[in-house]
Design goal:
It is a single chain. By secondary structure, the chain is mainly alpha-helical. Helix content is about 80%, strand content about 0%. The protein contains 20 helices and no strands.
Length: about 475
């Protein structure tokens, strides 16, 4: 596999070079965190697709196809549906807010007290999302290079942290575009047809696969419903996704570009399931289903092509890892650390330095956690359970229900988040019940407490309405954070 290793090495070096080039464009806080809010349709679509389809979608999607057949597309399909819903119903309004984090949105809607708790929940989610991608590329290295897990984690993690810290969102955007192209060619154009042909075509696969592998519901109706709750709704409120929405140069770009990216996700979902099914047909007795992707790549592809497809897999993993890492750093630095220090907003160049430091520290933390956890689906489920259970109701409630207020939002975060954590401990990390009861507890708390307490002040609601509509705030009432965010 010498040629394949050279192809992968060339790709990784190229990614570092692109990241270094992006460093020159990160001249302000806006450039570093949201690429100056000036991405056009092509770059926005590519980078959005790249960030949502990461290691869990690639390795995990093939794993689910290997284990359950065509219904294994449900998880990635739920991600695609969530991105479509976000783009059609919410992204235009989100882009007009011109903030940097979800917690800032909650602060505008409910008041500053809402941003601290939401910032902590969002920080845990984004950090765990970075961990899932780290676990994913480590699983590929395990099969291909026979190296210890920690070596794979350190090598891949150092590259991701390096180019992310160099130029922030500009470096990540440029590398994501490269990764989107490589991933599309490697997975959709090369691996999918080659794997199916190696397995003898769909007819031969159907003869050899276990009963139920061609059923769209063999994974279980309850599991599909849970995927929708966790991943579809998770797409609506995740900091890593919103931060990409903030990069669009207009609300029209955010809406249409995200729609195209969502359709791409649905195609990618089916591709992963079919690749997993082909692997099951050829290698039915793998020691672990997580090895399905690396196994089919290693044994079914010719030299050179194998290296490109492996580079494509790394593309998927690194895209999500870098997007989650900058999202985690943004939340930690702007929503948590700054408020704990009770400092006023610093100048842009100071902000760049502090965000770079946050990326480095949290990148190291994600590598350590990845060495401890071993299941990519388990880690991703923990991340989305916390996100959706704790924040879905107050975020969407704030966007669609005028009567929702600060006490209701805080009660929902506490009730939903606590319920999810307790049930994950008692029922298991992969149980369906935590998200069911967490959402129910959050919704009941939000509606009940909001109705029993005073409504949000009219001045705050009017300022929120103007911001959501993209109207400039009156000079006499604009606040410093609003002016800096705009």
């Amino acid at each position: 596999m010498t040629v394949d290793y050279l192809v992968m090495a060339a790709y990784l070096l190229g990614i570092i070079g692109v990241g270094w080039w992006g460093k020159r464009r990160a001249a302000s806080k806006s450039d570093f965190l949201v690429a100056g809010r000036r991405l056009g349709p092509l770059m926005y679509t590519g980078t959005m697709a790249a960030v949502v389809l990461g290691g869990a979608s690639t390795i995990g999607g093939v794993r689910l196809g290997y284990t359950y057949g065509v219904s294994g597309a449900a998880m990635v399909g739920a991600i695609g549906l969530g991105l479509l819903a976000l783009s059609v119903f919410f992204s235009a309004r989100i882009a007009r807010l011109r903030v940097y984090t979800v917690a800032e949105m909650l602060s505008l809607r409910y008041g500053d007290a809402a941003s601290v708790i939401s910032g902590v929940v969002m920080w845990i989610y984004t950090l765990m999302l970075a961990v899932t991608s780290t676990i994913a590329y480590a699983s590929v290295f395990d099969v291909l290079f026979d190296v210890p897990r920690w070596v794979a984690v350190v090598v891949g993690g150092t590259i991701v942290v390096g180019y992310s810290a160099l130029g922030g969102m500009w470096s990540i955007t440029l590398t994501d575009m490269v990764q989107f192209v490589v991933k599309s060619i490697g997975v959709l154009v090369l691996l999918l047809p080659i794997a199916v042909v190696k397995a003898g075509g769909f007819a031969a696969m159907a003869d050899r696969l276990p009963h139920g592998y061609l059923s769209p519901t063999s994974i279980g109706g309850q599991t599909i419903f849970t995927f929708v709750l966790i991943y579809t709704f998770g797409m609506l409120i995740g900091q890593d996704i919103w931060q990409r929405v903030f990069t669009a140069r207009s609300d029209r770009v955010a809406s249409w570009g995200g729609t195209v990216a969502g359709l791409y996700c649905l195609v990618y979902a089916l591709a992963g399931a079919f690749i997993g099914m082909a692997t099951k047909s050829l290698y039915p007795n793998l020691a672990a289903a997580d090895q399905a992707f690396a196994t089919i790549v290693k044994h079914a592809l010719p030299t050179g092509v194998r290296g490109l497809v492996l580079a494509a897999a790394l593309s998927a993993m690194m895209s999500t890892a870098s997007g989650a890492l900058i999202a985690s750093a943004t939340v930690a630095n702007n929503d948590i650390w700054a408020r704990l220090r009770r400092r006023t907003p610093a100048q842009d160049h100071d902000e760049i330095g502090s965000n770079r430091l946050a990326i480095a520290v949290l990148g190291l933390a994600s590598m350590v956690i990845a060495c401890v956890l071993g299941d990519v689906i388990e880690a991703l489920t923990v991340a989305y359970n916390l996100l959706v259970g704790g924040l879905l109701v107050p975020i969407l409630g704030g966007l669609v229900w005028r009567r929702g207020n600060l006490p209701g939002a805080l009660s929902s975060m506490i009730a939903g988040g606590t319920t999810v954590i307790v049930l994950m401990v008692t029922d298991g990390l992969l149980a369906n019940e935590p998200i069911y009861y967490g959402l129910l507890a959050g919704l009941v708390a939000y509606v009940t407490v909001s109705l029993l307490t005073r409504p949000t002040e009219d001045s705050v609601v009017e300022a929120w309405r103007r911001r959501l509509a993209g109207e400039p705030a009156p000079a006499s009432t604009a606040t410093a954070p609003e002016l800096s965010a705009a």
